[in-house]
Amino acid sequence: MRHEPVLTFTPKGIYCAAGDFYIDPWQRVDRALITHGHADHARGGMGRYLATHDALPVMRHRLGEINAEGIAYGERLTIGGAVVSFHPAGHVPGSAQIRVEVAGQIWVASGDYKVIDDGLSAPFEPLPCHHFITESTFGLPVFRWEPQETVARQINDWWRTCASDGKTAILGAYSLGKAQRLLSMLAPEIGPILCHTAIENTNAVLRDQGFALPDTILADKDATAKTHPGAIVVAPPSALGSAWSKKFGRQESGFASGWMAMRGVRRRRAGDRGFIISDHADWAGLLWAIRETKAENIYVTHGYTEIFSRYLNENGWNAQVVPTQFEGESLEASDERDNAA
After folding, report:
1. Which of 39, 113, 180, 302 could serve as 89's disulfide partner, Cβ 3.0–4.6 Å?
2. Does residue 248 belong to any structural domain of this protein?
3. Are 87 and 206 in the same domain?
């Protein structure tokens, strides 16, 4: 007997008719289930929101007063004819995959995810299902991440060299997730750690939730290279080379992104240094996650959708590209979709 799909892809977003709700909708709807707090997944104007307890504080910080309910990882909730639960996606603090079950059919909308444990976000949890919706931001074989401790050593060595040369190190990173992950990787004994206002505001929200972050200093108008010699400044990518950064005098800039795996991008976007690190799964991570679900049907969203879905179809899966308005990790430093916090 043929079943109607549990989730469908509509102009408003990913829709569940059995529960009359949307997952990460990009147009206004009455009920929105949200995978995480980045601006391309958690948008304003929804009637009601449901997200993990850890995602809600940042969402409220970004969106203001919203009608929102929190849910714990693994808690099962019946909405209409659907049973939903939220499970760790490993992407950023509070991020979740959303499992939806209707009449024995199990679908999982993964949102954005990474499969390595960064020590900050709840680690990715593989979910057996029949249908799996996956991103493909880095869905090319060229994208293979080095161990986090290797990248941490690279960044700290660069910062130490900058400090010994009398320069300020300015490191570009998105305000929710990437910035806090990098902060947890820094060696505070090297020097002061300063944060741009957008990042420090998000730090405060996460600290209030109990996330352990090193001591940081707000890079306000009075913070300069003279007041904080040997510092590293963590700032949104758009701040690299901006008028705001000039007050730090002699400096080197670095950009932390998965896109640094591509040589041409490193030359064009990285400033003085590029560090290969992402809060999205690499090629091997995407394939591992998909295999672990044991799903036969794969729906590929934002990223290298055509190439990745073609590979899946050639290797035993039933894959198709689906249109969404999710953005993944932007290549452009001027893109502030993660910096709305």
Report:
1. 113
2. yes
3. no
